[in-house]
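Two proteins follow. First one:
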Amino acid sequence: MTAPHPNGSPTPDDEHKLGPTRVRDLIAVAAVAALALWILIRYNYGAFPSLPWLAGVSLYVVAALEVGIGVIVRKRIADREVGAGGKLHPINAARLVALAKASAILGAIAAGGWTGILIFLLQNGILDVARADRPGAIIGIVGGLLLAAAALWLEHCCRTPDDPTPDNPDAAADGSPSAA
């Protein structure tokens, strides 16, 4: 692996590393999903069935599971129960990070999509059907936001205590400050 450039710019190897999920990326995904669903529902609203208010509940269930898993992982990492002989194998922690990243994207897509639908429903407030579909859309938006937040929490919980943070990007793997 090559050392970072003296001016702090990333090396070619750094460009392909997996880093923490960025909120700005999730916002961009949500915006694209909102626009796409708004366009889809605008031209096809009459072809869709009524939106049940339970449509977004599965997002709440997955978010609750991820928060619970995050609490367990955080405790095991804090208690140093990670490793081949510990209660949390490093491969499982890596799988949880992958789950968290995928869930964060799913939450952003869901929140954005439901937002696009809600915007359409608010624009058509004179229709009784549109007013009846609003609670389902609001529940979906909140569920998507909760899932994205829970996924970011799980991803955060999977970090080792020695991982570099935005506050201290120079932390080495052994916890000591790295040489510049």
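Second one, unrelated to the first:
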Amino acid sequence: MSEQSEMTNVFASKMRDADLNFIANIASKLGVGLGVTLFVKGALVTGNTISGKEYYEKIVEFFGDAQEGTVEQAIANYFKRTGEAYYTPEDDDASVPLNFLHLKDVAFRLGSEKFSHHKNGLLRIKIEEIDGFMLGISSNEE
């Protein structure tokens, strides 16, 4: 293998932060959420971590009592099935996927703008796409 192709392989690989995996795991296994601020492609994202199960349950709640046969009901049913299939282990030793970090009470900030808070905002973000993080919720207050 040439030096160029070895360099290409190194530059093309993505890294998953072990600390973020730990944070995702305690949210999923223990239901312990932490306030975090993420650095993602030049933007700041802040919120409280939640389990994947809670994320999917909150989306289903968002659609409430959708009427039978509606698009809203189909969407709610999809998220309910997905949450149950992937984030509801059949026993305590079963693992749940830790490819994503799930956040509630989300706010975003680009550049020098203020944080934009999203009422009932939920976020599902690939851990490998996060450039950096710090513990704690960031705000517009000084």
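SUMMARY FIELD: The CA atoms of residues 60 and 78 lie 9 Å apart. Residues 71-87 form the longest helix (17 residues).
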